[in-house]
Amino acid sequence: MAIRPILKMGTPSLFEKSVPWPANKFDSPELHALLADMKDSMKAATGAGLAAPQIGENVRVVIFEVINNARYPNREPIPYTVLINPQLAPTSKETDLDWEGCLSVPGMRGQVARYTTLRYTGFDQFGKPINRTVSGFHARVVQHEVDHLDGVLYPMRMTDMTKFGYTEVLFPELVGVEED
Ligand code: NI
């Protein structure tokens, strides 16, 4: 179990499509070790979520959790979730625009349009199916993390680059909270 370096934008592997986690490798030492490293790395950086490619493993595994997160104050809590081989299905065409950050794009925030509500399915670390319908920040975080599995970082989704900037300028109250 280790805190691993989080790859930053510019690293070619962050732009690759990740492969599914093998169905015969749920509840394996290999998967539990990967998840332990991901959780340690996410928590050390105060992230709301982390995708395996961010620590250099191009497999379709993400984790997320928001409980009193200093980088995302005043956001509704999201329970700790392990989501493997996820599929997303928006439940309406409605989108909303809101701020995002990313541990692979440190010190910056940008406004990104995301589906407001969606259903996500996939598996937990034991191979148990997950099926949730979520909205708001939870829906946003899932879309952001699953994008990492397809080689997409949030700036690539942005349409108004005047809404992209340094956290210290946009959200001075978060200075000292950001990891870098
Ligand atoms: Ni990210």
**Secondary-structure-derived class:** alpha+beta
Please give the count of helices: 3
Q: Predict the CATH topology.
A: Peptide Deformylase
Ions, cofactors and other ligands present here are:
nickel (II) ion
Shape: globular
Order of H and E elements: HEEEEEEEHEH
Trace the largest sheet across and list its strands: 1-2-3-6-7
What low-confidence regions span 5 or more consecutive residues with pLDDT below 50?
none
Give the fraction of residues assigned to helices. Answer: 10-25%
Largest sheet: 5 strands, antiparallel
Number of domains: 1
Topology:
Blueprint: H1 29-44, E1 49-51, E2 61-66, E3 78-90, E4 95-100, E5 108-115, E6 117-123, E7 129-135, H2 136-149, E8 164-166, H3 167-170
Antiparallel strand pairs: 1-2, 2-3, 3-6, 4-5, 5-8, 6-7
This protein binds nickel (II) ion.
Residues 102-104, 144, 148 line the site of nickel (II) ion.
Characterise the protein shown here.
The protein has a single domain, classed as Peptide Deformylase, CATH 3.90.45.10. It has three helices and eight strands; from the N terminus they run αβββββββαβα. The strands form two sheets. A five-stranded antiparallel β-sheet has the order 1-2-3-6-7, sandwiched between helices. By secondary structure, it is an alpha+beta fold. The longest helix has 16 residues, at 29-44.
